[in-house]
Design goal:
This protein is mainly alpha-helical. It is 53% helix and 4% strand. It has a two-stranded parallel ribbon. InterPro entries: Integrase_cat-core (IPR001584), Integrase_H2C2 (IPR041588), Retrovirus_Pol_polyprotein (IPR050951), RNaseH-like_sf (IPR012337), RNaseH_sf (IPR036397).
């Protein structure tokens, strides 16, 4: 439970586990959205290593819009990817998008029409976005994009059930400073020099990734 793990990071009291479970269970908005829980058969998917998501609001799904946002919102932050995997959407498979990938040296792959399992992580994340944003949007659902950034903050700073680590830890090797830290503070980890910072960061990332690989291996057995 993500709420429980976040609470345990910063607080302790008797019956913490039970109190958090009861608090979550009594959330009427969440209960109304989730409905009765059912079990479905499926297989474990090995997907994106860090679990870091990006969700970018766009006015339409035209190929030109998607291509522009790839450059503006992704490549400008993280650089040019080696591989870009998408669904069967015509925007991703258009001549414009294909040419962009060729110019940037990106290997473009896609799911097959009858076997979209390789895109399972994105589909699950889409459902997670819908479930969470539905708790906050107005009745006419026109303000969802204003709630999206804080949802991403919450998701990126929450432990993932597969590797037991937060996406931000997996990607950056450190935790985010959140609103609760303004009230309760957090330990200072200011390095004495840039070299010390890089050394500590490399060691932290190596430790985090080793821990994550072990948990992913156990989950797949």
């Amino acid at each position: 439970m993500k709420t429980l793990s976040k609470t345990r990071e910063r607080f302790y009291w008797d019956r913490l586990h039970a109190d958090v479970e009861n608090w979550c269970r009594e959330c009427h908005a969440c209960g109304a959205r989730k409905g009765p829980k059912t079990r479905t058969k499926g297989r474990l998917q090995h997907y994106n290593y860090t679990k870091w998501p990006e969700a970018i609001p766009i006015p339409d799904q035209e190929a030109s819009t998607v291509a522009e946002e790839l450059v503006r919102s992704w490549i400008s932050c993280y650089g040019v990817p080696m591989i870009l995997h998408s669904d069967q959407g015509t925007n991703f498979n258009s001549a414009l998008f294909t040419k962009l990938c060729e110019l940037l040296g990106i290997l473009k792959t896609r799911t097959t029409a009858l076997h979209p399992e390789s895109d399972g992580m994105v589909e699950r994340f889409n459902r997670t976005i819908l479930n969470h944003l539905s708790l906050f949007v107005l009745r006419n659902q026109t303000d969802w994009d204003t709630h999206l950034p804080l949802f991403l903050l919450a998701y990126r700073s929450a432990e993932h059930e597969v590797n037991g680590l937060t996406p931000v830890e997996m990607l950056f090797g450190q935790t985010l400073r959140l609103l609760c830290h303004i009230l309760f503070g957090r330990p200072s980890e200011t390095p004495s020099s840039p070299n010390e910072y890089m050394k500590n960061l490399e060691a932290r990332l190596e430790s985090v990734h080793a821990f994550a690989r072990e948990l992913i291996k156990l989950a797949s057995e």
